[in-house]
Structures
1.
Amino acid sequence: MAGQTDQLVKPGSGHGLLDVYGHRFLLKLLVRKEIKVRYRGSVLGLMWSYVKPLVQFLIYFVALGIFLNLQRGTPNYAIYLFSGIVLVNFFTESLSNATRSIVDNRDLIRKIYLPRELFPVATVWVSAAHFLPQLLVLVGACLVVGWTPSVLQLAAVILIFVMVAVLGTGLGLLFGAVNVYFRDSENIVDMIVMVVTWASPVLYLWSMVQKVMGEWFWIYQLNPMTVAVEVFHWAFWEPTLRGGQLVNDATPPGMLTLWLPVALLTTLAVLFLGQFTFRRLAVHFAQEL
Amino acid sequence: MTSHGHVAISCIDLRKQFVLRHTRSLKEALVWLAKGRKGDLSKKFLALKDVSLEVKQGETVALMGLNGSGKSTLLKLISGVLQPDGGTVRTRGRVAGLIEVGAGFHHDLSGRDNVYLNGAILGMTEKQIDEKFDSIVEFSEIGEFIDTEVKFYSSGMYLRLAFSIAVHTDPEVFLIDEILAVGDEPFQRKCIAKIKELSDMGKTLFVVSHDLDLVATVCERGVLLEHGEVVMDGEVHAVVAELRRRSAHAESEDSL
């Protein structure tokens, strides 16, 4: 940043996401601020990050697991359900907050030049900070019922976490930038958030979809969140099953060899598309807000 | 590090046009597209017309003009918040704006947290803030309230802290927009003394203010903008006199 004293430079021209790394101290402060401010003045504070997903989980478990009796065909249905819910929550929270981040920070953006990518990226980090305690609860629950994951499965968890964060960032950049011009963007994202819980095998099994969709099942698999949830099931839920409970179709065929690479590529494409759109639109943020 | 003679800010044929857009929904835009882009969705307004300006390192420049003459737009182009529609603007070294102090403040954070957050927003590193923290608090006269949430500050305390952070950011070029009216008179005097100290240190100052007597004491050079064009550029007292003449003239025309 400093040391450019002997060069004339154009103000306000950045390098997109690469600049965020150069401003990581500011990023850290922005993330810390959001976390501090989120539950200001509340008695339970950060506990709300546990209570809300827990209630959500209980509703689904009672309605689907018990009333619709999904838990009979699916051993350890609670684990199955919770591992999907925490991941989808991470994604939806990242996306909806990132979409609003540019408009929410308009006072700053109108007055001071900063790499604007900082704001969506910061919201994804905040979502990650809320996701990690939920992940710990999940791990605890898995250990109680006897979780024996392989190294490969643990590595897959980290990979999926990164992938979902990148996907949230990419879509967040895209919708966040468009939101400056058309506030419809927020509503589109609200819709995506609503759909995503049901468009991935969070509440039901992937095999139920295959039965209905038949040869068109691949369309369902193109959704990167579907693959992300399936990998989480493979890593958290499958290793808790005992010999007699083993389901022979716990994961769709070709999940790791075909669909995971496809999901990773889609995610990268989304990130590039998001960054490209964001940079094109960011030039006029200050005057449009 | 700063030597007279090098160009600090260079503006060549700067043009900035604002679109006063009326539509704010996707539906209206789609309807407009479907109708073959008939009619204009927006009104255009030229805020700056081919402004060329060069400021050398160590110069103190006052940017003057009546409301709507394009002063703040020019400042925003130099700080990088806005991008020009034509021409080029280039700067040397770190540019920091004392533009609208307190823009980066968060009401629910303590003064201490805000010093760090705002310092980082204005481009300071963690180490720089650590080093200057005591000096910032001392200058702002906030004292023991530094660990109180900013929402409980009086408006004077709020502005003093914000100004104090801004003057401690230590850039090569300072952009100052209408903030010399901070706090009570003793604090104002302190601010002006601080700004003079900065200019003695060889910092480049670019000041926008309606307080003509004040800019005449702080700055050496004056630039007069009218309807987005530079109409005069010279010694500050002469430019102040010209602006006074013009506004008096405008008034007498109005009263006719």
2.
Amino acid sequence: MALVFFTIFLWTATVAMGVLAWRKDDGTFVAGFRDAARESLFIAPRVCVGIFGSGFIAELLPKETVSSLLGSGSGSLGILIASIAGAFVPGGPVVAFAIGAAALKAGAGSPQIMGFVVSWLLFSFNRTLIWELPVMRARFTGARILLSAPIPLIVGHLTMLSAG
Amino acid sequence: MKQEDTDNSGSPAGQLISDIGSARTPHHPKKRRMFDAGFLTISAIMFLAAGIVYYRRGAQHVFDILAKDSVLAVNIAPKVLAAVLLAAWLRRLLPKEVIARHFGHQSGIRGMFLAVLAGVILPGGPMTAFPLAIAFSQGGAALSVIVAFLTSWLLLSANRTIVWEMAFIDTHLVGWRLLLCLPIPFLLGFAAQYFYRGKVLISEANH
């Protein structure tokens, strides 16, 4: 239900942008369309590799190891392990979310996966290295990471509390 | 079409490192390559994993996984298309300078609120978000506003959540995550203001 709502929201926003671009009548519509085509060509192979690759990896994840290390019973240590793993996942959102989903299927608990996802969102090492450090520089990046450091653990534990 | 880019670039790994070292003008990041090191790495991992599944469980199992994931790919495709179109038009209708002018020079709670909103609606990846944070700083935004903006884009980006996160993770769990993460950009903004008061974290060298 929520997914349907957000999908409708997404398409409404897209159509609204398209209408605005069209009404400007200065080539914005076509230029944006061309940008999107180029971007799609870039994204499509990555999405496919991310989806199929994580499907195969999910099949190979050792279920016992995943549920003992990251299962709901693994508690705070599991959240910590998942949060550290999240920061070091290579690649973009497809890879990170697909691995999170695969781990959930293999028996990981939701507080642990919450820690994993939030940690990837905040600290993803290749985004930090390639995009944040060169633009924001070390002083800002270091401060931001330091301030954000406890967040994945806090979110993981709050999930644990709310799940009872 | 873009293969020639990869041909004259030397080793992908070497390119990655030289990108970091030479990024003196971050406002014009280098052109992306169709087949870069990251893509080649995850492709290699995919083929390796498929090979191991085939070796252990047989061809039927490989086909089962391919069929199941094809359904997922078909489900995601139209949403990705919508998001890509939305981002492309929004980038042309609302260029970085305009966002920076309207959201950037703010401070205080109002500024943080607008910055969090900008982080939620901003389409596009890190090549948009970080230079925009610098533009905010040039426009005179407070540190709290910049931290709130980046944290909001990292944790609450509507684009990333709708297209990618909800495709893979149960929407109930995604909803919980958004709820728990909602106050974090504000908290980190205040924390930055408190702990780094009077310190220069973004200097002229960034501009």
